[in-house]
Amino acid sequence: MDEALSSAGKICIAIIAVAYLTFVVSNRIFNTSMASTTPAVVRDVIQKDEHHLYGKILVPRSCDEVSYQIENPVQNQYILAFTTWEEPSVACLNTPTERVFDTVIFAPTIGTEFTATLDKAPLQLAVYPIISGIQD
Fold it and tell me: Three-class SS string for the chain?
């Protein structure tokens, strides 16, 4: 009887250890590759045919730096395509870190749509327009 209980205890410990390791590995894999569910807040200072966009985005790790380019696949639709790259001189922690961006896009004052990607994955944007000195 004691031997059966000992074997059952060892099996339970092994199952718990395997479950915990599975959780840790899957958490590391999925949390670093998933896009943030919190939208990036972007301010859009609008002047005549000009949009000055600035804000912050979250990158997956503290050593990730950001570069971006503006794509215009369809008239009045602009994509902010953010790409991360690793800065070798910074200690790398797997914690989300904010990065600031600032750009000017020459586009119609009204009817312009902005979307974004981070490493080709969709990135939610919350764009808040600020009207500044529009003259005809």
Answer: CHHHHHHHHHHHHHHHHHHHHHHHHHHHHHHHHCCCCCCEEEEEEEECCEEEEEEEEEECCCCEEEEEEEEEEECCEEEEEEEEEECCCCCCCCCCEEEEEEEEECCCCCCCEEEEEECCEEECEEEEEEECCCCC
Domain ranges of the chain: 1-33, 40-131
pLDDT 10s digits, 70-93: 999 889 899 999 999 998 888 888
- pTM here? 0.67
